[in-house]
Amino acid sequence: MQNRGCGKNARSGNFVTIGALQLDLLIPGAQSLKDKRRVIKSLKERLHNRFNCSVAEIDFQDTWRRSRLAVCIIGNDVRHVNSQLSSVVAYVAANSAAELADYRIEML
Questions:
Q1: Is residue 75 part of a domain?
Q2: What are phi and psi of 74, to 5 degrees?
Q3: Phi/psi of residue 93, each to 5°?
Q4: In angstroms, what CA-CA distances link 63 with 7, 52, 94?
Q5: Looking at residue 34, which CATH number applies to its domain?
Q6: Most buried by CB count within 10 Å: which residue of 8, 11, 13, 100?
Q7: pLDDT, tens only, 22-60
Q8: Phi, then psi, of 45 in degrees rounded to 5
């Protein structure tokens, strides 16, 4: 079996960058879990399609008006990954039925 560099791009010498974004959202219009899930599902699909990122609801699954999403982007340029995650934050703040309460970006 060939060694593939374990996290290092063999040709360019760049390390893989994993950017993780945690979004805390409020869904004030939700009257039921069904309402909330509709809003969250739509947002997850739009983020995935627009930014080519992975998105998962990681907390408050059974709370009507609150959600926590994790967004992950992988790349070989820290600045690009950070820029993409910042763009996700701006998009959610401007284009969502959910209100952005808080967020946190980490590079792994």
A1: yes
A2: -115, 135
A3: -65, -35
A4: 38, 27, 23
A5: 3.30.70.1120
A6: 100
A7: 999 999 989 999 999 999 999 999 999 999 999 999 999
A8: -65, -45
